[in-house]
Design goal:
This protein is α+β, with helices and mostly antiparallel strands. The chain has two domains: about 45 residues; about 160 residues, Protein Transport Mog1p, Chain A (3-Layer(aba) Sandwich). Helix content is about 35%, strand content about 40%. It has four helices and ten strands. It has a seven-stranded antiparallel beta sheet, with helices on both faces. It has a three-stranded antiparallel beta sheet with strand order 1-2-10. A hairpin with a 2-residue loop joins strand 6 and strand 7.
């Protein structure tokens, strides 16, 4: 009886020791996996490939972006004008779109456009905080840039309130009588993650 108890106790201790070692090893392996995954994501975010959007438009796109699948494009932007190109991150948490307006504008309308689009953007949000709204030069061409945090608050018929807050980086350029629009957006909580990436991509735009 004593031998049985001793053997049972000894085996239990051995298995407990092995289990603890195994759990410890799994924790270390999981930590290494998470670290490597995050490192790969950061590397992809901060590496870029220049892509030709059209024969006359090119820009650097973060390697963490991919062309948005057609069904996802329909689900998100069904009511909008079909963009020239639409990209999304591998996790779907940030989008980059390139589009063109149908309205004709003159080559000297850049100041008017700044005021027009700033007012139009402000009307889309319940609350908006502009980080920058100005005319800049990119590759010796004038662009209007709007960088802001915008929040939309909706109140349901039952009295519930919901809100969506996003970080946006938008650039407009007069091009052949039309306005080209370059629009980056992500959740406000991801601003710090994507702000420098958005700036890098927008600063790389080249128009022929």
């Amino acid at each position: 009886m004593d031998a049985y108890i001793f053997n049972t106790f000894f085996k239990t201790r051995i298995f407990t020791f092995v289990d603890k070692k195994l759990i410890g090893f799994m924790r270390v392996a999981l930590t290494i996996f998470i670290f490597c995954t995050l490192n790969m994501v950061v590397r992809a975010q901060e590496s870029y490939t220049r892509q030709k959007i059209t024969p006359n438009i090119s820009m650097k796109i973060s390697d963490y972006f991919q062309i948005m699948p057609p069904q996802q494009l329909l689900d998100r932007y069904a009511s909008s004008r079909i963009p020239i190109a639409m990209f999304t991150t591998l996790d779907g948490r940030a989008d980059l779109g390139i589009n063109q307006t149908a309205t004709q504008w003159g080559p000297n309308d850049i100041d008017m456009l700044l005021d027009f689009y700033k007012a139009s953007i402000a009307n889309l949000y319940s609350q908006i905080d502009f980080i920058q709204s100005k005319i800049i030069r990119v590759d010796d061409r004038q662009f209007i840039v709007f960088e802001f945090l915008g929040e939309v608050v909706d109140q349901s018929l039952l009295g519930g309130v919901s809100s969506i807050k996003k970080y946006n980086y938008i650039q407009y350029a007069l091009y052949r009588g039309k306005v080209l629009l370059f629009n980056f957006n992500c959740a406000a909580n991801d601003q710090q993650k994507w702000q420098s990436v958005a700036n890098e991509m927008m600063s790389s735009i080249r128009l022929k």
